[in-house]
Structure formats: C-alpha cells, structure tokens
Design a protein that fits this description.
single chain; 389 residues; mainly alpha; Growth Hormone, Chain: A; 18 helices; globular; membrane; transmembrane transporter activity; transmembrane helix; transmembrane; Major facilitator superfamily (MFS) profile domain-containing protein
Length: 389
C-alpha cells in the first residue's frame, strides 16, 4: 500500500500540473470577461469558493476518509474545466471557478494528510519532507512541459488548450480511484462544532504554529496570485508564443527544488530556508518589475529554485504541529485564511492592473507581502532548531 500510494500520488500530481490552460489562464479569463478586473475576479471566486468549502471538506476527510475526498475533488475539477472550455461568457467562467474552488477545498489538507498517514502506516512519518518533495516535484515537472506546449498551441486556438486539459483532468479522476485508504487515520467521532473549536484552540495555544500559519496565509495570498497574474506582465515584454517559456523555467526549477528538498532541509534547517526564500523572492520581484526588460521573465524564474524546498519546509513544520485526528481540518483552516486573502488581493490587483498596468500592480502586491519576512524572522530568532517557542 505504501509504495502504491506514493507512486499514484506522483502520477496524480503530474496530471494536476499538466494543464495546458494554466499558464495562459489570466489572458483567457480577461479576454472572455473583457477586463483585467473581471479576469482576476475569476481567481478570486475560485478562492472564495475554496474558502467556503475548506472546513466542511476538511472535516469530511477526517470523518469519511482520504481516498474518496480525493475522488470527489477530482470530479469537481473535471466539471470546472468543462465550464471553462465552453466559456460562452463571464458567467460560465464563474461556474467553473466555483467548481475549481470546491476541488481545491477537497484536495487542501486532505492530500498532505493522505501522504502523512500513508507514511505513518509504515512508521516513516519522520521522512515526510523527503516524500512530500518527491511526489510534489512531478507536478512542477508537468507544469514546465505543458507550459512550453501551451504557448505554441495558443497561437492557433485557446479552445484546443482547454479541451485537451479536460481530457487530462478526466485521466486524473481515473487515477484517484486506485488510491488506497491509510489505516493510521483516527476517524472523527466528536461533534463537528467541538471538532472545529478544538482545532482552532490548537492554533491559538501553539505560538510556533500561529506564526507559521500567519506567514503561510499572507505568503500564499500574495505569491499564488502573482504566479497566476505574471503572464499578463510577461505579455508586455514577450510575444504570446513565448509566454509558456516564462512558466517552463520556474516549473523545472521548482521540480528540482522539490526533489532535493528533504536533503536541503536537513542540511540548512527549515526556517532558515523559509526566511531566505522570502527575502530573495521579493528582491528579485522589485528588480524585475521596477526595471522591466526582456530579461525580467528570466530573472523572475530564479526564485523557483527555492520554491519547492520552501513549500515542503512549511508543510513539514505544520504537519509536526497538527494533531493526528484533526490533521486535515487544521490544514483546511490554514488554507481558509489563504483563500480569503487571495480573493481579496485578486480584486485589488485587478483594479490596479487596469489603472496602472501589470508591472506597477505587481510591485504594489510585493510591498504588501513584505511582513512575511518579519514573521519568518521571528521564528528564526526564537530558535534555529525550531524547538517550540
């Protein structure tokens, strides 16, 4: 069961990443809706939908099981891309966004918990960082490959991209049925409101988890939105056929970073990596966006070499702090904050881009994300070995 789930999760993540549509989503959404504001609002709706369903799906996972939570998420994902592909108007995109948000909510927390519980069955949970990095690297690899192809296919038709993506997501749904439910998970048997209250109390009482969560929420709200919107900036300095390349380079860099994350975390310590990643990424953003040239997209791809190891470091620290019977719920509560933050920032970014242009809008977004550095510095200051603060 252990090897089978690891193998299937690697394939599953590859299929999630192999989306021809993702690198050009902001361009397609803005084209269908008529403006950057409405285009970015689709991302906001995705995150609001995800936020709405985060806690219920996390509780569902803890109560019913990890496997069928993945299956339901995959069904929602297929439906989302069907509505995107039809795309007759902005409202078709909205319906697709609601389904994609539901899918993300099912996956959020649950998929990490599935991996952790699978490892726990074999008493290998201490190696979570290594396996998390390896199964996540396949998604980034797929994103890099699909990004190259997407730019070329987009020259002929966006709709080809979308319907091909629908086929890939149907394959992902097929794979999800072969996952094996871990035995380690302790089924939820308490009142749901009590369960949520207990999970929230752990965030409040655990200072290290609280700082990590705040940093994670703000970082996700900013960095994920920047990733989705960067194509709009790249379009101002590169032709449309080359936009895929701007996604390929960071995806390949992130794939390497994910794959070697376990070794890097053990050598440099998780919070040191998180702090350096945050500082370096923001410096590069300021340089690339304040002085935009044809080299900017290449420069902006370099932080990807830290993205994978930073992501795994964050998840590893949180998984060690979560309780076993509330693992998915606690992760979903954290994701809830990130989703709400993303939704709010998407409205801000869209309005700024329409009035100031993509580059200046992204600069302002980077400034808003500066407090993340302080939060990681607080954790770093209180103990490099990450003993509980």
């Amino acid at each position: 069961m252990f090897q089978k789930n690891i193998r299937l999760l690697s394939i599953f993540n590859f299929l999630i990443g192999f989306s021809m549509f993702a690198p050009l989503a902001i361009i397609y959404f803005s084209k269908v809706s008529g403006s950057y504001t409405l285009g970015t609002s689709v991302f906001g709706i995705i995150m609001l939908s995800s936020a709405l369903f985060e806690v219920p799906t996390g509780i569902w996972s803890d109560k019913v099981g990890r496997k069928y939570t993945v299956v339901l998420g995959s069904w929602a994902r297929v439906l989302a891309f069907v509505f995107y592909a039809i795309g007759l108007s902005y409202w078709w995109l909205v319906v697709g966004a609601v389904f994609e948000g539901l899918s993300r909510a099912f996956y959020s927390g649950n998929n990490d918990a599935l991996l952790y519980d699978t490892l726990a069955d074999e008493h290998k949970e201490d190696n979570y960082d290594e396996f998390q990095g390896k199964v996540s690297s396949t998604e980034q690899l797929a994103m890099g490959i699909s990004a190259v192809l997407s730019g070329l296919i987009a020259i002929f038709s966006f709709h080809y991209l979308l319907w091909f993506t629908v086929i890939i997501q149907a394959s992902l749904l097929f794979v999800s049925y072969f996952l094996v439910e871990p035995h380690f998970r302790k089924k939820l048997d308490t009142n749901l409101l009590v369960h949520i209250k207990e999970a929230i109390s752990l965030f409040i009482s655990n200072k290290k988890l609280r700082l990590l969560s705040l940093a994670s929420i703000l970082s996700y709200s900013i960095s994920e939105l920047k990733w989705e919107f960067t194509s709009a900036f790249v379009l101002t300095v590169w032709p449309i056929w080359a936009i895929g390349i701007s996604k390929t380079l960071p995806s390949f860099g992130a794939a390497l970073s994910f794959y070697f994350s376990g070794k890097l975390i053990r050598k440099f310590k998780a919070v040191t990596i998180l702090l350096f990643d945050s500082v370096y990424g923001k410096v590069i953003s300021f340089v690339s966006l304040l002085f935009p040239t044809a080299f900017s997209p290449l420069l902006m791809s370099t932080p990807s070499l830290l993205y994978g190891v930073g992501s795994v470091a964050e998840k590893t620290l949180m998984q060690h702090e979560f309780s076993n019977h509330q693992r998915a719920t606690m992760s979903s509560l954290n994701s809830l904050g990130g989703s709400v933050g993303f939704a709010l920032m998407s409205l801000v970014l869209g309005g700024l881009a329409d009035s100031l242009g993509p580059a200046k809008a992204l600069v302002i977004l980077t400034i808003i994300g500066l407090p993340v550095i302080y939060l990681y510095w607080r954790i770093f200051k209180n103990g490099r070995d990450l003993v509980a603060i």
